[in-house]
């Protein structure tokens, strides 16, 4: 077997953690990110990728690419999801020692999170697994999971927090 040359990490050595988050996110994901943030002394960028957004990054115009990753308009449905996520984050991150931010992204979740991580020179990406059940299983079968896409295509470390059904 040939010797492998270690690759240079693409993220910043002290870059933030990029954490993918969804409405009704299981608390384990946010709490694991917070604990990791404290342990590594890294700020957090929580990111929600709007699932009904469409991809426009195939057009190479820089203004179109920017709009795909950073949507300018937020409709009522997105606003409700954002309000729910922010309420969850404010509760979970109360008293956090390090700063955190929240971003709304558009496009394919794995690509949007990867792009944000590159932009922010992140040190790691954190996502949760899907809740067990028929709906998530079918969705994963049809499109694959964001966690799987990230772990297959990322050069940054990706932490996948296992989520178990509550109840």
For this entry, give a set of tags.
single chain; 167 residues; alpha/beta; Rossmann fold; five-stranded parallel beta sheet; globular; UspA
Measured between the Cα atoms of the first and last residue, the distance is: 49 Å
Count of folded domains = 1
Binned strand content: 5-15%
Low-confidence stretches: 57-72, 133-143
Average residue pLDDT: 75
CATH hierarchy, class? Alpha Beta
Structural class: alpha/beta
**What's the architecture, going by CATH?**
3-Layer(aba) Sandwich
> What is the global morphology?
globular
For the largest sheet, list the strands in their spatial order. 3-2-1-4-5
Q: Which fold name fills CATH's third level, the topology?
A: Rossmann fold
Q: What series of H and E elements makes up the topology?
A: EHEHHEHEHHE
Number of helices: 6
Number of strands: 5
Helical fraction: 40-55%
Name given to the CATH homologous superfamily: HUPs
Rg, Cα atoms, Å: 16 Å
Biggest β-sheet, characterized? 5 strands, parallel
Protein name: UspA domain-containing protein
InterPro entries: Rossmann-like_a/b/a_fold, UspA
Domain UspA: 28-162
Pfam family, one: Usp
């Amino acid at each position: 077997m040939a010797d492998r040359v270690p690759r240079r990490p693409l993220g910043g050595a002290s870059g933030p953690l990029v954490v993918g988050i969804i409405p009704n996110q299981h608390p384990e994901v946010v709490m694991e990110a917070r604990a990791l943030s404290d342990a590594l002394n890294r700020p957090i960028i929580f990111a929600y990728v709007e699932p009904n957004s469409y991809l426009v990054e195939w057009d190479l115009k820089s203004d179109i690419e920017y709009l795909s990753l950073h949507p300018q308009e937020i409709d009522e449905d997105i606003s409700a999801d954002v309000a729910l996520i922010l309420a969850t984050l404010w509760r979970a991150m109360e008293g956090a020692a390090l700063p955190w931010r929240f971003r709304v992204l558009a496009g394919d979740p794995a690509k949007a999170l990867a792009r944000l991580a590159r932009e922010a020179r992140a040190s790691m990406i954190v996502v949760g697994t899907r809740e067990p059940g028929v709906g998530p299983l079918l969705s994963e079968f049809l499109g694959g999971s964001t966690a799987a896409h990230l772990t297959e295509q990322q050069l940054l470390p990706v932490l996948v927090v296992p989520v178990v059904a509550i109840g």
